Amino acid sequence: MKKQPVIYMQYCEMLSEISIDDLHFKVTLSPIPENFCILWFKDSRVSYSFEALGKFSRFDKRSVLDFIVRYSTTNSLREEIARKRFERKLETLAPCFFEQIEQLSYEKKIDAYKNLYNLDSIIEKRDLAKKRKIMAQKFHPDVGGDTRAMSVINEAYEYLVNEASA
């Protein structure tokens, strides 16, 4: 898997900015000379910062706007993109990640659980179950994973589900 360079929005040339209700989008030119533009996204209900949503091979206002409208109005598209981003995040976890969580204090474990499940401030049980299933497909001992990893995943799930109920 080719490692992608980290790109920060503040170093990119702004091309366009669009807001639809609480959803905010920015389109920037990539600072790395590969001639593509980056679509940044922020849902102001759950996040204070923008994150890269995707890239376009070139800046075509019509195609970018079409995608933004589809993204803003199609829940299944948002869920599919979120799932793919979550799977990519799991690929970057270091082998010792779950061991490190086990050694944390209780307060720090809570933050680590939220980070593991890629949560901001809102905890939705349905999303937790989906993310747990994705992690089980990767980390369960029956598929070559580790019992320690699954133990942490399950412990985090139980804690977060209880938090969502509260």
Task: Please provide a brief summary of the model.
By secondary structure, this protein is of the alpha+beta class. The chain has helices spanning 61-73, 75-91, 97-102, 106-116, 125-139, 147-165, and strands at 13-20, 23-29, 37-43, 51-56. The protein has a 4-stranded antiparallel beta sheet, covered by helices on one side.
How would you portray this structure in words?
It is a single chain. This protein is α+β, with helices and mostly antiparallel strands and 166 residues long. It has 2 domains: 9-73, no CATH class; 87-165, Orthogonal Bundle (Helix Hairpins). Helices cover 49% and strands 17% of the residues. The protein contains 6 helices and 4 strands; from the N terminus they run ββββαααααα. It has a 4-stranded antiparallel sheet with strand order 1-2-3-4, covered by helices on one side. The longest helix has 19 residues, at 147-165. The radius of gyration is 18 Å and the shape is elongated. The N and C termini lie far apart (40 Å).
Q: For the CA atoms, what is the radius of gyration?
A: 18 Å
The total of beta strands comes to 4
Specify the structural class. Answer: alpha+beta
Cα(first) to Cα(last) distance is 40 Å
What CATH architecture of the largest domain would you give? Orthogonal Bundle
- Tally of alpha and pi helices: 6
Strand proportion, as a percent range, falls in 15-25%
CATH fold-level topology of the largest domain? Helix Hairpins
CATH class of the largest domain: Mainly Alpha
Tell me, rounded to a whole number, the average pLDDT: 87
The description of the largest β-sheet is:
4 strands, antiparallel
Low-confidence stretches: none
Overall geometry: elongated
* Overall tally of domains: 2
Q: Order of strands across the biggest sheet?
A: 1-2-3-4
Order of helices and strands: EEEEHHHHHH
Helix content: 40-55%
